[in-house]
Amino acid sequence: MTDRLARVLEDIYLRWNSREFVHPDPLEFLYAYDNLQDREIAGLTASGLAYGRVAQILGSVGTVLEALGPSPATVPEALMEERLAGFRHRFTSGADLARVLRGARRIQRDNGSIGGFVAEAVAEGGILEAQRRLAAGILGDGPPSSLLPCPTRGSCCKRLNLWFRWMVRRDSVDPGGWFGVSTSQLLIPLDTHMWKIGRRLGFTRRNSPDLKAAMEITEGFGRVNPLDPVKYDFALTRFGIRSDLALESLFSELDPSREL
Q1: Does the residue 250 lie in any domain?
Q2: What is the pTM of this model?
């Protein structure tokens, strides 16, 4: 079963893991930034606002990045809230976002890059500890933020893991930029589509897409590809997101009884 599943997943990856299928996905905004620090800020913005309707997400991310200018990592912290005044994405205000981006800029200033901070934390305590430290470092003594969930509260941290995937993996879709973190250490950015796929494949029996489910589904894909368990995330989540790709057609392809 594992060998057959690996062949099917590789076929899906080769067909759908292409930039021509990225739109509509907030990942597309990262391609405009060659500078690592700019890409980190753009990625944090795009992943943090990735909730709600796709058209609204793209519109909101575009509005923020336009307000921050061509180099979002060089906007003075004191001007961040002013640049984002009046912005709102559902229950996220410009002040909320400015607070998170200011914290991210502090980590860049103190560590050279967010990636360097993350790599050191992963080496010392693993990916979940790195995410905990990153959230604490960005938010400081302030209240929690919906833009930056923390795994210690049981959240699957889908958007945070999405940002990590974008920044660690490097292929025709994921632009990368972070070194010192292995693709084998990443967690699946678990949304409803991937949770359904994971259940269908028998990777989890969890009744909700929580942190435990994310870990179990990552372990399941890890049995197929130990070095890069999130490799198939982008291609698989095109099904059910794109109007021309039905989730049931994917399940048909993954059916163990189907001939290759």
Answers
A1: no
A2: 0.94
